[in-house]
Amino acid sequence: MEYRIHPKTGDKIGVVGIGAGPVGAALTPAQCIQYALDKPGVLTVLPGLRSVEGVKQALSYFTASPEARDYAAIASLTPKDAAGACVYCNHCQPCPAGLNVGLINKYYDLAAIGDTLAAEHYAKLSKTAADCTGCGHCGRRCPFHVAQPQRMKEIAAYFGK
Ligand code: SF4
Ligand code: SF4
Predict the structure, then answer these.
(1) Which member of 15, 24, 69, 151 lies 3.0 to 4.6 Å from 34 by CB, making a disulfide possible if both were Cys?
(2) What percent of the chain has pLDDT over 70?
(3) Cα 68 from chain centre
(4) What is the Å distance from ligand 1's center to 67 Cα?
């Protein structure tokens, strides 16, 4: 991540770029936008557009089905030492207990680095990590080999719910 200064407000803005590297090359535009939006703290995605066709491809995000936005294909690119880390893709959904697995993990990771807003959002969830039954469905579906039942216990202990 790098930082830029907003020209009018002077605010420091974090900028994450996805170029034509392995991730960008492996994903469709809709998958790429979803991947970027799922990263912690990302509020805006700005596609690099060079043609009308590029605009159409970027706009396809809005009509793409959840399956078409699913970027789990990049699991094969995940470095071995990064396997086991949740990337919030929700490929493991649906959870039989109704948990939003990706969102719960994202709020936890953000709260753990001091994001109080994420902790507030977590507190408002109707289903939290404490509702996990440990059924293991998500673990079997996760392309990134996250031991989610254990992680849910860790998250429930952290938030106390
Ligand atoms: S547990 Fe795996 S499949 Fe589920 S959101 Fe996290 S990375 Fe994606
Ligand atoms: S292990 Fe927990 S989070 Fe995963 S699918 Fe089962 S109930 Fe849902």
Answers:
(1) 69
(2) 89
(3) 15
(4) 14
pLDDT, mean of residues 36-50: 82
Query: What DSSP designation does 88 have?
Result: -
Q: Which residue has the tokens 């790098």?
A: 2
| Six-digit token string for 146 | 């996250």
- CA–CA separation, 79 and 97 (whole Å): 31
Q: Which of 40, 62, 49 is nearest to 109 (CA)?
A: 40
- Cα 152 to averaged position of ligand 2 atoms, centre (Å): 8
Nearest atom (ligand 1) to Cα of 87: 7
User: Of ligand 2's atoms, which has the minimum distance to the CA of residue 133?
Assistant: 7
Query: Which atom of ligand 2 is least distant from the CA of 97?
Result: 7
CB 142 within 8 Å of CB 74: no
The SS3 call for residue 102 is helix
Q: What is the pLDDT of residues 102-129, one digit of tens each?
A: 999 999 999 999 989 999 999 999 999 9
Total Cβ atoms within 10 A of residue 52 = 8
For the whole model, what pTM was predicted? 0.74
Whether pLDDT at 23 is above 80: no
What is the whole-number distance in angstroms between the Cα of residue 67 and the centre of ligand 2? 20
Residue 13: beta bridge partners?
4
